[in-house]
Write a structure and sequence with these properties.
OB fold (Dihydrolipoamide Acetyltransferase, E2P); alpha+beta; transport; 5 helices; Arc Repressor Mutant, subunit A; elongated; 15 strands
């Protein structure tokens, strides 16, 4: 079980997430659910089933027109446009929080492999995007790039692209307007900070004293010269 950071809107137990927003925008652009599904590399049947599930929870989202001189098609309803606008506002709010919530780790580049490198920090070894001509660096990690896991249910290295992992203990859980900031002690000068939704906080029972594993991708981690 893990707690990531994703903007979602909920109604009747159904979550409207980024993939759903992509589907509605593709319908709006193409004028057809079939064309929208194809442009996103999804099957029509799955797109249709997902749209039906969303409409059961959020109301009518797509108007379907059959035949006629224009050959029929699909168009978004006012409710769909309202839902997309609300989702965009939520995501923008999350992004603004994430941009001001970063963890900075001092380290030394000990190995390079193209743009990626291995950095030794007080918290442990980190794979990150590194500068070509500096060894003493600061590793900057945005809080929305960190995923928290139950130690007993952490994916194996082969099951995820997030190869950076630190075991730690939750030391603070601060509630914001729409998300929680979870601070995890990982042996560095300052805690590692992750952003999670309320649902994720409850699912992982994130409270001070809770043991967790924090993971993040190398490509989401940037080192800059100190």
């Amino acid at each position: 079980m893990d707690a990531g950071f994703d903007a979602t809107l909920r109604a009747d137990g159904v979550a409207f997430a980024e993939r759903d927003a992509e589907l509605l925008r593709a319908v709006d652009e193409s004028g057809s659910l079939n064309a929208a599904a194809s442009s996103l590399g999804r099957s029509y049947s799955r797109a249709h089933d997902r749209l039906t599930e969303l409409e059961d929870a959020f109301g009518s989202l797509v108007e379907r027109q059959r035949g006629g001189s224009g050959g029929g098609g699909s168009a978004l309803t006012d409710r769909a446009h309202e839902l997309l606008a609300a989702f965009d506002r939520l995501r923008a709010g999350y992004s603004a929080i994430a941009e001001t919530t970063e963890t900075v780790l001092d380290g030394e580049v000990v190995e390079r492999d193209g743009e990626l490198g291995t950095v030794e920090t007080a918290a442990g070894t980190v794979r990150a995007l590194v500068p070509p001509d500096a060894d003493s660096v600061e590793v900057v990690l945005r809080a929305d790039a960190v995923t928290l896991h139950d130690p007993a249910d952490t994916p194996t290295g082969d099951a995820t692209s997030a190869r950076n992992r630190f075991s730690g203990e939750v030391v603070a859980v601060d509630r914001g307007e729409s998300v929680y900031r979870v601070s995890v002690e990982v042996g560095a000068d300052a805690p590692l900070v992750a952003l999670v939704t309320e649902e994720s906080r409850d699912r992982l029972d994130l409270e001070p004293g809770r043991d967790v594993v924090a993971s993040f991708k190398a490509t989401a981690t940037r080192a800059t010269p100190r």
